[in-house]
Design brief:
Length: 188
């Protein structure tokens, strides 16, 4: 299996992913590889809700959509923990969202080492290649938040990591300030 010869075709993946959702299993297709996305635990859900509150308070013109599927490229289909977009950006779209509408993709790590490696290594490349302006990674294992921005050439030009407890400035086009002290409650 290589990027020239993926495990399956994207259309095959979409059929499998749709069937799996009915059984509370989430699959992603990242760089031609099938990935199982762990079901979120309560702490994970609380972090996503905290981010929704932060975004709604500071940027009421935007919406943070949990679990919206994104069609990144020919060999990449992801279901970020959340995506930030302008209000009504996904109206009249099917289940797979256009990455051009996404201002920020958000991933919160789980307790699965394979999924965490994907969140830390593969998804920043995939989101940068798709031109998503900001990727926010809440890394519970590391106790840190990483903001990837300035996509270009298949990577993010700016990568800033701060441990929980610091104030994190999420740059344009998001323009949100996150007081991450609360995240210390969700590291186990």
């Amino acid at each position: 299996m290589t990027s020239e010869r993926p495990q399956m075709f994207p259309s095959q993946f979409e059929t499998i992913a749709e069937a799996a959702e009915r059984h509370d299993v989430t699959f992603e297709f990242v760089t031609g590889k099938l990935r199982v996305k762990p079901m979120p635990d309560g702490d994970h859900a609380e972090i996503v809700m905290w981010l929704i509150e932060c975004c709604m308070t500071q940027r009421p013109d935007l919406r943070l959509h949990p679990g919206r599927r994104v069609l990144l490229s020919g060999d990449c289909r992801t279901k970020p923990d959340a995506v930030l977009a302008h209000r009504r950006a996904f109206a009249a779209q099917g289940e797979w969202s256009d990455p051009a509408e996404v201002l920020m993709a958000v991933e919160v790590t789980s307790h699965d080492p394979h999924a965490n490696r994907c969140d830390r290594e593969e998804k920043p490349v995939a989101y940068a290649k798709a031109g998503i302006p900001v990727f926010l990674l809440v890394d519970r294992e590391a106790g840190a938040v990483t903001v990837f921005s300035e996509p270009g050439g298949g990577r993010y030009g700016s990568v800033v990591t701060l441990t929980h407890g610091h104030t994190v400035e999420v740059p344009e086009p998001v323009n949100v300030t996150l007081d991450t002290e609360v995240l210390k409650e969700f590291v186990r």
